[in-house]
Request: fold
Amino acid sequence: MIVDIYSRKAVGWEVNPMESAEFAAKLLHKAILDEGCLLDPPVLHADNGGPQKGFTMKAKLEDLGVTPSYSRPRGSNDNPYSESLFRTFKYRPEYPVEGFASIEAARKWVRKFVWWYNEGHLHSAIRFVTPSQRHRGEDATLLAIAIGFITWQNKNSPIGGAARAATGNRSKKCGSTVQKIAKPR
Reply:
């Protein structure tokens, strides 16, 4: 999988019978074309695995103008974005703990997961919008609408606004009461 670290969107994925630099290069090429960033190539951060550092992959990076960035040697946890994605992947309730029956079953499961992750998962690290919403630049508008609704709701609900004014601010009363009890005489 390839994840955009700004939006957390999985922008490329494949399930292959084995790891190889050739498969990784094809996936990268497809993701670059699908995302339309051929003229403005990104930085690709990867671990130090063989497929990511193989000659075919290095040649593809150079061919596409992509700047490579690699993990620290012997560091398996310096890319929190992909680590988070894979944790979400492995902890889905429908994840087959016993493994996949076939490569086609794995591809089908990953296809559904990536769709859910990009389109349905309200991601806590990006203020509870989906990765696709953030990727498309819709997050600022959605968050402004949510804040406007919350503000309206606080002013107009029976437990907010006028009701709060009539009963006083309970949190201040509780704080002062606790403070009076806590002081010794």
Remarks:
- The longest strand covers residues 43-46.
- The domain at 2-135 is CATH 3.30.420.10 (Nucleotidyltransferase; domain 5).
